[in-house]
Specification:
By secondary structure, the chain is mainly alpha-helical. The chain has helices at about 10-20, 50-55, 65-90, 95-105, 110-125, 130-145, 150-155, 160-175, 180-190, 190-195, 200-210, 215-230; strands at about 20-25, 25-30, 35-40, 45-50, 65. The protein contains twelve helices and five strands. The strands form two sheets. The chain has a three-stranded antiparallel sheet. Strands 1-5 form a two-stranded antiparallel ribbon. Strand 2 and strand 3 (about 35-40) form a beta hairpin.
Length: about 230
């Protein structure tokens, strides 16, 4: 068993729990992570803890490591591990709460502890699904020219509440001339659409292309006359 490894298999935990209570006979800093410490009973490794845990719990040489104390420390350590990983992920890019929650559980962290961390981050403003949705929608609209329907679907997959997604997309629609974006997108593929000699098939291809980008039927129909005129010009 490697005392530098943060995550143990449940069988390893069970082996230690079966031996408890045991006296903590030594506390040693870990070689690769000097901010963490390994607790031993004689030559038996009990568990690794952070410097903060040493302050939060009555851990010193001579303390009896009972099953209750052991499990409390493990829970505290996992809570801090989830927080640390969430901080790292959020420092890289914004996340929706649902997305962050999925990543933590996928890493093997407890869903209960993960939920506690998510709630703390929401309360402290480190997570904000509406702000995340606004930025996500704006990026997809501006950089990839996604339409409102495609953005809504993507937000749903990110776990954004339906009412929040609709509010964000509605605001985006009000600030963008979606029919003009449809015109611009179609004209970028002018050569492609002109390869279709049949007028009605060309019209269908344009419609399917813009629908695939996530624009509504009304937006496409409003843009089509202008698109067709410019293609034929």
């Amino acid at each position: 068993m490697n005392p530098n490894n943060e995550h143990w298999k449940s069988s390893d935990e069970d082996l230690i729990l079966d031996k408890l209570p045991l006296q903590v006979t030594s506390i040693k800093p870990q070689l690769k992570r000097p901010d963490r410490f390994s607790l031993f009973h004689e030559k038996t490794f009990l568990l690794g803890v952070s410097s903060q845990t040493l302050l939060d719990f009555p851990i010193q040489k001579g303390v009896q490591m009972t099953p209750s104390l052991y499990l409390s420390i493990k829970e505290s350590e996992e809570y801090q591990s989830v927080k640390d990983r969430c901080y790292r992920l959020l420092s890289g890019r914004d996340h929706a709460a649902f997305e962050l929650r999925q990543k933590m559980v996928k890493k093997g962290f407890s869903s209960e502890i993960t939920e506690r961390v998510i709630e703390e981050f929401l309360d402290r403003g480190f997570l904000d699904d509406e702000k995340y949705a606004q930025k996500f929608a704006a990026d997809k609209a501006n950089l990839k020219q996604w339409g409102p329907l495609k953005i809504k679907i993507a937000l749903k997959k990110k776990g954004i509440n339906k009412s929040v997604a609709e509010k964000v997309v509605e605001k985006l629609n009000a600030n963008l001339e979606q029919d003009q974006i449809c015109v611009d997108l179609a004209l970028k593929k002018k050569a492609h659409f002109l390869r279709e000699p049949d007028f009605y098939k060309r019209k269908q291809k344009i419609y399917r292309y813009l629908a695939g980008k996530g624009y509504t039927g009304d937006q496409i129909k409003k843009a089509l006359p202008t698109i067709l005129d410019k293609l034929n010009a």
